[in-house]
Design goal:
2 helices, 10-stranded parallel sheet, 325 residues, 13-stranded parallel sheet, mainly beta
Length: 325
């Protein structure tokens, strides 16, 4: 192994905030591979996304806060997008007349470890579309290898055929991400696979945090406050170490931790609320092939709160049996 001696010399560069940010960006770039370019102004960002090829860059670093109007399609030649210093992208729908399938993503989902999106916050503001309903059905779509990305979806999707919006749609290998839904009906993670350490929240009337997803690991979800009809995991498969807590929730509808899910290990649901504050609640509903799963309710005598209903366990026994079964 060859070692290179580095000598640091004082060139009288002031250690102000701007220079410290440059030092941080330099260290980050060296540890993650040098980017082809660093986009750090709105002018550079506009020039980038207006180019069909994104100016030919493959590895792009974004530093700062940026805004865009309408759908941003990432060219298939762009392989890595990384945020630096808390990068935020706000995508609005001002002046748009049609509903787009997504706000940020690839036209076709790529394959390969070289594709990666990291350290971004994406705000999809659909409220200003001409016609009133949401401009974007999904905020981020057809992306892979996503790490530390926060997505917020705003809007009212009444004109959508599916009547719902998504934060993450058709994405694979999603780690340490957050999905926030502020629409009338929404889904945090839809049709995604290989999800770990992710969470989310919602003010939606009807809300599924994970819907039609598979291979979900280490996701701990806390739901509290007022919700109409939240279901955390719906129609998902192959879940390990996933936990749901409904804490002091009020709801005019039915709340469900795991709904029509299968092949689950070491998962749990805690329902801490009174029967008078909700219409109904289920820890596990119509779930199959559970192992070492636990369901707990604070009010065991409540007639409308069930630890589980219509579920089957395999292998190691589960503690989900309800007192009303």
């Amino acid at each position: 192994m060859t070692y290179i001696k580095t000598i640091w010399e004082n060139d009288v560069t002031p250690l102000n905030a701007d220079n410290m940010n440059k030092i941080e960006e330099g260290i980050y770039a060296l540890s993650h591979g040098l980017p082809d370019t660093i986009i750090d102004t709105q002018e550079k960002f506009d020039e980038l996304i207006e180019s069909p090829t994104w100016l030919g860059f493959e590895n792009i670093a974004l530093s700062g806060s940026f805004t865009a109007t309408g759908k941003i399609t990432i060219p298939s030649t762009v392989k890595k997008i990384e945020g630096v210093n808390g990068t935020v992208i706000t995508i609005n729908s001002e002046g748009l007349t049609q509903i787009e399938d997504f706000a940020f993503g690839y036209a076709t989902k790529p394959t390969g470890k070289e594709y990666e999106i990291r350290n971004l916050k994406i705000l999809c503001d659909s409220n200003s579309r001409v016609g009133g309903s949401s401009a974007f059905q999904s905020c981020i779509k057809n992306c892979i290898n996503i790490h530390n990305v926060t997505v917020w979806q705003f809007g009212d999707p009444l004109e959508l055929a599916t009547d719902e919006t998504h934060c993450f749609d058709n994405c694979d290998n999603v780690d340490n991400c957050y999905a926030g839904v502020l629409t009338e009906s929404g889904i945090g993670f839809y049709n995604c696979s290989n999800i770990s350490n992710c969470s989310g929240s919602s003010a939606a009337i009807t809300y599924n945090l994970f819907n039609d997803c598979k291979n979900i690991v280490n996701c701990d979800i806390l739901i509290n406050g007022d919700h109409a009809s939240p279901s955390v995991f719906t129609n998902c498969s192959y879940l390990v170490n996933c936990h749901v807590t409904f804490d002091s929730i009020t709801s005019t509808g039915t709340v469900t931790g795991f709904n029509f899910c299968k092949s689950m290990g070491n998962c749990s649901c805690v329902i801490s609320t009174s029967e008078s504050s909700i219409f109904g609640a289920y820890g596990f509903l119509c779930c199959d092939k559970l192992s070492s799963c636990v369901s707990t309710v604070s009010d065991m005598e409540a007639e409308n709160i069930y630890r589980s209903l219509y579920c089957t366990c395999v292998g190691v026994s589960c503690d989900i049996a309800d007192q009303k079964e």
